[in-house]
Write a structure and sequence with these properties.
Strand content: 15-25%
Helix content: 25-40%
Number of helices: 12
Bound molecules: flavin-adenine dinucleotide, uridine-5'-diphosphate
Oligomer: single chain
């Protein structure tokens, strides 16, 4: 049997590509996935207590792209969900992103208008020009004290680096607000798949032209597979046998606990922004699905550098190393590198879907 496409990885990048190739072009596709399940890091499942949990950290779907939303809607119904995060600092809870409520509580102020908040930021911010790193981008907006309380130690725990060693795009993911909006995201479409990510992926991949092999590193089987083209969504350095050295990735160890309580915390996510605990955040999974249950499951996230690769590290040295791999990848004509690991980009899910749909369009027109 010869396949038109061999796809490595069954996360968003691999699965969207497999679905498009099979359904739109009648291509025969083989998906090889190293883990024992599809859906990549978006994988969710019911734990032994019957609670739907996100095994690799909370995955909140948010996008401004109608195209991405409509595409995924072919495979799932949705429930509305707007993510809210609190930061725990010195044993008190504050809304994050920083907003008017955060400031009023932290500094015992009574700012009523957005103008007053804006004036406050103007009085504390430190001008940085140009903005070169993740410290610059925050202190340039809110000054040093808020940076220390909400960004510095969380970032050190997450990345094992000072914010000044990371590109501005990392802490720049978090906006700064002058109003009372406590939502983590403000995108137009904010939903969760009604029956979980796993059902959405099952539907996406249930096409007669798609075969899936789980529990298999592609390097172990590639010699035995006949195919025309490959779509590669794994780590790019692994593809090239680390020939220029290993790219750094961050990982997370999850510590799971199920409690005999209806709820453990006030919201789905509490960020521990001080140095006194080693974990970054606690997720209470019930909030993500709106599930009703008498127990609740929480996970604590302990970042590390040697587990499953979850996060590319956006800074100058890793980008330089990645560029060497990218150059090499451009020489290989029958392999397309796509997704968060293969492009070494801190993509959200919707960005991976958008990028993969674009790649598919290019393929379909060449
Ligand atoms: P992946 O999901 O990593 O899929 C790649 C697949 O390739 C994996 O299944 C892997 O096992 C497989 N693979 C790797 N090497 C091999 C090999 N040698 N052989 C065979 N298979 C291989 N995005 C959001 O939009 N909202 C969020 O709230 C959000 N939260 C996140 C929280 C965490 C903790 C993390 C880590 C990510 C989060 N993301 C979130 C990002 C989201 O997970 C990614 O954008 C998306 O899952 C990337 O899809 P992908 O297919 O590129 O990669
Ligand atoms: N961040 C922080 N404090 C917070 C939230 C975020 O310092 O309370 C920084 C931190 O460096 C983090 C980055 O902003 O890695 C991006 O945060 P996001 O919540 O987007 O991270 P993700 O959900 O992708 O892990």
């Amino acid at each position: 049997m010869k396949y038109d496409y061999l796809i490595i990885g069954a996360g968003f990048a691999g699965s969207v590509m497999a679905e498009r190739l099979a359904s739109q072009q009648n291509k025969k596709v083989l998906v090889v996935e190293k883990r024992n399940h599809i859906a990549g890091n978006a994988y969710d499942e019911y734990d032994e207590h019957g609670i739907l949990v996100h095994r690799y950290g909370p995955h909140i779907f948010h996008t401004n792209s109608k195209k991405v939303f409509e595409y995924l809607s072919l495979f799932t119904e949705w429930i509305p969900y707007e993510h809210k995060v609190l930061a725990k600092f010195n044993n008190e809870l504050y809304p994050i992103p920083i907003n008017r409520i955060t400031l009023n509580k932290l500094y015992n102020k009574n700012f009523k208008s957005e103008k007053e908040v804006e004036n406050f930021y103007n009085s504390v911010k430190e001008k940085r020009h140009p903005i070169l790193n993740s410290e610059d981008i925050i202190v340039n907006q809110v000054g040093h004290d808020l940076f220390e309380k909400f960004f510095r130690y969380y970032t050190k725990k997450q990345w094992e680096m000072e914010p000044r060693e990371l590109s501005p795009s990392v802490c720049g993911r978090i906006p700064v607000r002058t109003n009372d909006d406590c939502r983590y995201f403000t995108d137009k479409y904010q939903f969760m798949p009604k029956e979980g990510y796993i059902k959405m992926f099952e539907k996406m991949l249930s096409h007669k032209n798609i075969e899936i092999v789980l529990n298999t590193d592609y390097k172990k089987v590639i010699e035995d597979i006949k195919f025309d083209k490959m779509i590669y969504t794994g780590p790019i350095d692994y593809f090239f046998d680390y020939q220029f050295g290993k790219l750094p990735y961050r990982s997370i160890r999850f510590e799971w606990e199920t409690l005999d309580l209806e709820f453990y915390q006030e919201t789905a996510q509490v960020n521990y922004t001080g140095p006194e605990v080693a974990f970054t955040r606690i997720i209470e999974h019930k909030y993500l699905s709106g599930q009703k249950a008498i127990k609740t499951t929480i996970s604590k996230e302990y970042p590390n550098s040697n587990g499953e690769p979850f996060y590319p590290i956006p800074n100058v040295s890793s980008q330089t190393l990645y560029n060497q791999y990218k150059k090499e990848s451009e020489k290989i004509k029958n392999v397309i590198f796509t997704g968060r690991l293969a492009e070494y980009k801190y993509y959200n899910m919707d960005q991976v879907v958008a990028q993969t749909l674009n790649q598919f369009r290019k393929l379909a027109t060449t």
